């Protein structure tokens, strides 16, 4: 697929997505690498726009340069955002009580604390992502180290065999202490890539995942 057609497909996907106001988004594509620039009216739309681009067959990489420009009536004071963020995290059944701390500065929410599992770290971020008035989320929540690097590697391989059958043998897994994982190899599409990344994150002790997987799009 050529860059012009790929760009058109991305524009149509952004326009098709009902949760995204794409009027302020500019799209460019060079060598299969898509760039989003311009602005959106909320942080959640910025996240959704990125997901929409990755769904398009042929996208090799994405440069995300969107800014969040809040409408005047959507602007909220930092103290109010902090209160709402702390409350919504406390309501989350998947996040341990008092494990996450919230700080807000100029609309940017910073999360800190320590949890046992990545899904708890992710759940805390997902809980505040759609709050009105935020510009972005910085997730500095850490994971407790519970396993040695070789044990983490073995458990990721087991997870790959369970969740993405047939792909485990083609994926190279490097684990640096503490829990710093690098994934390399070729995959068929974005969903496969995300499934492999999720399998790595599901292992206790994984603190960071470097996704160096390459999508090998097949021509029709």
Rounded to the nearest angstrom, the distance between the terminal CA atoms is 10 Å
Integer average pLDDT: 86
Number of helices: 6
Beta-strand percentage range: 25-35%
What is the structure about, briefly put?
By secondary structure, this protein is α/β, with parallel strands linked by helices.
Topology of helices and strands:
Elements: H1 3-16, E1 25-30, E2 33-40, H2 43-54, E3 61-68, H3 78-91, E4 100-105, E5 108-115, H4 118-129, E6 136-139, E7 142-143, H5 149-163, E8 172-176, E9 180-187, H6 190-201, E10 208-215
Parallel strand pairs: 2-3, 5-6, 5-7, 9-10
Antiparallel strand pairs: 1-2, 4-5, 8-9
Helix pairs in contact: 3-4, 5-6
Question: What do these coordinates show?
Answer:
The chain is flat, with a radius of gyration of 19 Å. It is α/β, with parallel strands linked by helices. The chain folds into 3 domains: 67 residues, 2-Layer Sandwich (Histidine-containing Protein, Chain: A), CATH 3.30.1340; 71 residues, 2-Layer Sandwich (Histidine-containing Protein, Chain: A), CATH 3.30.1340; 67 residues, Histidine-containing Protein, Chain: A. It has 6 helices and 10 strands. The longest helix has 15 residues.
């Amino acid at each position: 697929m050529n860059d012009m057609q790929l760009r058109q497909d991305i524009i149509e996907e952004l326009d098709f997505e009902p949760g995204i106001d794409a009027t302020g988004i500019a799209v460019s594509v060079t060598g299969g690498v898509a760039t989003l620039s311009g602005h959106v009216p909320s942080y959640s739309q910025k996240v959704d726009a990125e997901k929409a681009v990755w769904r398009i067959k042929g996208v090799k990489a994405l440069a995300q340069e969107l800014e969040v420009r809040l409408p005047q009536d959507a602007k909220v004071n930092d103290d109010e955002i902090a209160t709402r963020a702390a409350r919504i995290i406390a309501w989350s059944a998947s996040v341990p009580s008092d494990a996450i701390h919230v700080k807000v500065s100029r609309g940017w929410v910073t999360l800190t604390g320590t949890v046992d599992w990545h899904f708890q770290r992710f759940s805390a971020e997902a809980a505040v992502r759609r709050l009105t008035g935020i510009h972005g989320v910085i997730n500095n929540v850490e994971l407790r180290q519970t396993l040695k690097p070789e044990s983490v590697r073995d458990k990721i391989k087991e997870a790959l065999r369970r969740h993405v059958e047939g792909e485990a043998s083609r994926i190279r897994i490097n684990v640096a202490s503490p829990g710093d994982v690098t994934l390399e190899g070729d995959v068929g599409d974005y969903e496969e890539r995300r499934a492999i990344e999720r399998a790595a994150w599901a292992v206790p002790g994984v603190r960071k995942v470097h996704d160096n997987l390459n999508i090998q799009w097949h021509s029709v």
